[in-house]
Amino acid sequence: MATIRFSSSRNDTPVTVDVPPGASPTLLSVAQAHRVPIPFTCRSGACGACRVRVETLAAGSRPLAPLTDDERLVLTAGRWVTAADIAAAERLGVSPKLRLACQYRLGDEDIAVSFESELGGT
User: Fold this and answer.
1) Which of 117, 96, 110 lies closest to 53, judged by CA?
2) What does the alpha-carbon distance between residue 122 and residue 107 come to, in Å, rounded to a whole number?
3) Domain spans of the chain?
């Protein structure tokens, strides 16, 4: 089971969500289902508006899917992460600190997700 703790710059109360095993929804779809206001515009990984900070909470947990090609391109083109940041995270088997909520597919990891409540943050 994945456990996600969402927090934002505009909400002092984090929202914790458990996602059952076998489901692999995106962070954005889980956030929307629980009324967590992660900003987004495209849902396809092209704009970068749904950037979130991801911290792995449980030792040994791993993201289900690596960065998508679109996510890798948008994050590095926007200079939010570097190719070296991505390579280092992949060597450790964890997510890079910044991800796109519309692209990150959940596995059984325990993560903390933080974001800015308005576009242009994080």
Assistant:
1) 96
2) 23
3) 2-115
d(CA 38, CA 47): 14
Nearest-angstrom CA–CA distance, 61 and 111: 9
CA-to-CA separations, 49 to 12, 24, 52, 77, 88, in angstroms, rounded:
22, 21, 9, 13, 24
pTM above 0.70, yes or no: yes
For the stretch 3-48, pLDDT in tens is: 899 998 776 788 999 988 777 889 999 999 999 999 999 888 888 9
Query: Average pLDDT for residues 110-117, to the nearest whole number?
Result: 86
Say which CATH class 2-115 falls into.
alpha beta
Q: How many CA atoms lie within 13 A of 45 on its CB side?
A: 19
